[in-house]
Design a protein that fits this description.
The protein is of the alpha+beta class. It has two domains: 1-106; 143-395, Neuraminidase (6 Propeller). 35% of the residues lie in helices and 35% in strands. The protein is built from three helices and 20 strands. The strands form five sheets. The chain has a four-stranded antiparallel sheet with strand order 1-20-19-18, with no helix packed on it. The protein is elongated, with a radius of gyration of 39 Å.
Length: 397
Amino acid sequence: MVVLQLRFLLVPFLTSVMGTAQYMMQDAALMNYIDRRFLSLEKRLEKCNQDILDYVEEFRDFSKMVLSRLAGLNNYKAEVKSEVENLLTRIERAQRDIDYFGSVTDSNTCIEVHEDLVKQQLFEEAEEKKKLKLMLNASCDHMLAGIKSLKIVKKTGDKHGSWMKDPGKKHTKIYLLNGSVNNVILEFANIMTFMESNHTLKARRVTLPFPWEGTGHIIYQGFLFYHRYGSLNEIIKFNIQKRNTADQMLLPGAGRIPAYQLSPSTKIDLAIDEQGLWAIHAEPETGGNIVITKINHITMAVEHTWDTSCNSKDAEAAFMACNTLYVVYNFPSGGTSRIQCVYDVLDAVNTYEIPVLHFPKRQGSHSTIHYNPKEKQLFAWGDGSQIIYKLHTKQKV
């Protein structure tokens, strides 16, 4: 009887032990499977890392090859440039020889042709001056004789900027354009509002579709004319009230070098006088001398261009008044600004007899100077200050 009871007890015990052993075998098989998967992943990662190293090495070799070929291209470019320059020199020399032999073999004919050409050139220049006098108001007969006084209206804004009135409108609004790159105009009802300490709170903000470059912009007859930032020589005509772009143009030859050496941010300086809209800039082909262009402000077309004898070196600003360009010079470190070069497009002024005109009672530099033909005053921006200069004029001789 006891033996029978022991059998009944051993059967569940053995069954439990065998079940536990079976589970342990299954767990061991699972762990073995997981280990094999991890080993496979590690091998794949190792292969991936090796492939990346191989690709990096191939890319380095490719980069070295490209750089070496680029260096070779630069050498070829220098050789071709040298050959072209040599060829041009030989062509110029041959051309001089041809001209010389031609003058020796037929000197009389050359003299006659030369005289005819001179007569033709003088005739064309006379006709051109007649056309210019018709285009420009020849009755504009005053010239700058001195700068009488200055008034610092306010000191606000950056070192570079521009402020002005619209000489083509009857209103007394003041416009402030802060900075050499910006796209927001501040419009004030009058100069008293502008002079208030919290002036920006009372200003009407006008946002431009494209920012300006430099400080050479101008407002005339309700339009802002400015050099578009990021462009070589694009001038934008913007309607301030309607807040849209009315027109645009490209100014030939401009934008490659600064108009004034001491104001490098201004590549194109726009100006207004009694005759309308002008553009002032410099060109490498003129040796850095200033070029002035008359622009039709309605059609945005170039009417005429003049190469002046005024150099842009040590110049900080310029303005047009009564068909005449006045260039303002200074020292690189700042000092007393002075008008030292004058150019009249109609040759109505003997520029060699004009004395140097100094700006009174002020040491520093100007970011911009604009002439207001309506008030016969200069609106200037000097080291963050907004300044008005009153002028003394006299008849042209």
